[in-house]
Amino acid sequence: MRFDVLTLFPELFSSFLKETILGRAVKAGLIDIRLVNIRSFARGRHLVTDDRPFGGGEGMVMKPGPISRALDSIDRKPDRSLVVLLTPQGRRFEQAMAWELSRMEQVILICGRYEGVDERIRTGSVDLELSIGDYVLSGGETAAMVVMDAVSRLVPGVLGGERSAQEDSFEGGLLEHPQYTRPRVFRNQEVPAVLLSGDHEKIRVWKRTESLKRTLERRPDLLEKAKLTEEDKRILAKLREKTGK
After folding, report:
1. Of the residues 153, 208, 214, 219, which is catalytic?
2. Is 88 a catalytic residue?
3. Catalytic site residue 153?
4. Which of 159, 165, 173, 81 is CA-nearest to residue 127?
5. What predicted TM-score, i.e. pTM, was given to this entire model?
6. Which value, in Å, is the radius of gyration of the alpha carbons in the chain?
7. Cα 28 to chain center, whole Å?
8. CATH of 2-152, one of 3.40.390.30, 3.40.50.300, 3.40.50.150, 3.40.1280.10
9. Residue-by-residue pLDDT tens, the chain, 245 positions
């Protein structure tokens, strides 16, 4: 899978691409990441990439020309390429969207700055607008890292274990169950006995019950869209009876 990232600050990605799981995936040839410096496509002596907004207002707006030329420079994969603008006005980025993007061969991420990009880029060049949350960042670079990390985890071979990504929080619509490792006792807190029992069925039921319990307590809104089995519904009914939720 390939990511092309259009940014004014490619150096921000340096450590991210060296130290993370994504960095290892790049070295292994599972993920291809190409950083495109938007400023390289600006014109004039000072390579200006932003200007004052028409109609007045605070801040500066990224000019359409440099972004458009940067997009034109990219070798696109017909029908398997998607241009994504990272913006707080976009569709909320969730796990289901991460799966959708992981099925693409190429994802092109445009990182905005200042007050955003010229509207004509959004209407004329963008396939999808994404927001990683209801807050404002200084630029789209951090959001691009979030999207690449979440999507890359779903590419076969990146995590190593086939089930690793499937057992993460939000897969199937639920939060993940609690995790424990050595030592068995830490500051007078013991690992639940069931996890040490060796009984795989009891462990499976415990994990599923704890996953449902945690979701009910912390993110009950997720249960409305979660993929629940009949067993899940029975467990959930008992949990609701106990908690009154």
Report:
1. 153
2. yes
3. yes
4. 81
5. 0.88
6. 22
7. 21
8. 3.40.1280.10
9. 999 999 999 999 999 998 889 999 999 999 999 999 999 999 999 999 999 999 999 999 999 999 999 999 999 988 899 999 999 999 999 999 999 999 999 999 999 999 999 999 999 999 999 999 999 999 999 999 999 999 999 999 999 765 555 556 566 789 999 999 999 999 999 999 999 999 999 999 999 999 999 999 999 999 998 989 999 999 999 999 998 88
